[in-house]
Amino acid sequence: MSGNKPLPVVSVQPSRGLVDEKFQVTVQNLLPGEEVTLHALIQSEDGDSWEAFAHYVSDAAGAVKVAEDASVGGSYQGTEPMGLLWSMKPVPGSRTGLRLRKKDVCTPMVVQISVYRGHISHGFRETPALACAVAERWYMAPGVRRVDIEEKGVRGTLFLPPGPGPFPGVLDMWGGGGGLVEYRSALLASHGYVSMALEYMTPKTMPSGKDSYVGHQYFETAFAVLRDHPQVCSDRVAMLGLSFGTSVALAMAVYSSLIEPSCLVCVSGSHVQPVKGSLSDVFAEINKNVHRTRYDEEKRVIWRDLLLPIPSDPTKKVDVGKIRCPLLLIVGEDDQNWPASESAEDMEKMMKEAGNSHLLTTLSYPGAGHLIEPPYTPHFRSSNFMVAQTKEKVVVLWGGETKAHAHAQEHSWQRTLAFLEQHLYSSGDKLDRSNL
């Protein structure tokens, strides 16, 4: 208490939740019409600090409700319930080219939210806060299990929902940066899917050095490992790919006689690649066009032209007219890394001519860039990138405008979950979700 007046208090509800779950941020015990700044801070596992801030004016009751009130300045403006997360940027003075990604999905992302008197835009570390609250943001729901996979030459991580199952499965593949990325798979398991994050572009999965990549058999084996798991419903397995993962998913669905996915989700990718070629063949084709690389005024790499123009030669692109399962395409119209929009238009034309366009759903987002991730993840217009085949470090321009990209991430994730629900849980007999 300050005299007879209660001290300001900030609350976050729920204080512990999944990263795709909205929270409510409220400040109380302010003066009516008082100007305040809300500030959100995250420290990454690499020790980098990320922040967002917004200016508010309290209502007649001396309260600020972020879900209902408009920010009048700061990292975002307007009524944006989750703006304190999706508008985050590295704090001033940080290293260049940073990207906020969760590495250890068994621990939460911890967000500190503070309220300051007045409308301020800097000096948050030096300025005393009126009140603070902490929220935990998790990729793994209670009961989800993480299991390392090294089976039949396949490497990855399996995430299992709570309960005996069986559950539908999702084979989760990321892009050309290589490495093992787990957070999307952990979140899918939190929604009731046995999800396997597949490792396929690392030294451990390259058979004979940097110029040799795993072949189709690797992905067929990975699909079989997931499909045959005792907690997976073997006839309800999807493939999800982002960027280069989309190339793999489309090729496997069309040309492999051993992979029959129940549905496909393809994010920010293309069908342009040598027909039935290995990863080595795909990269060889891309490298032929490396002279088409562009750079913006900040010397950031733009790779979208490497696959343009979309070829008319049928041997240069996956015959998507042969796709036999539902396909969800997610496209950012400001993608500066892949020609996702042009590819989607050509795929739609090919599928219409083949008579299977009824299987295609396209979500196209103006102002969205390449890295369309789970919702409320900060937008990265550019970031450092390690080229898997050369180990060269560059700064890549991904594209996108922050607010439009944030909308795309939230909307496309909701539609992705609905798409998987429709084609994996709602086909045939309803599976038991009572343990989720």
TrEMBL record:
Domain BAAT/Acyl-CoA thioester hydrolase C-terminal intervals: 217-425
SUPFAM superfamilies, sorted: alpha/beta-Hydrolases (SSF53474)
Active site location: 243, 335, 370
Residue ranges constituting the Acyl-CoA thioester hydrolase/bile acid-CoA amino acid N-acetyltransferase domain according to the UniProt record: 20-151
Pfam families to which the protein is assigned, alphabetical: BAAT_C, Bile_Hydr_Trans
Molecular function in Gene Ontology: fatty acyl-CoA hydrolase activity
BP-aspect Gene Ontology terms: acyl-CoA metabolic process; fatty acid metabolic process
Transmembrane segments: none
Family: Belongs to the C/M/P thioester hydrolase family.
UniProt-recorded name of the protein: Uncharacterized protein
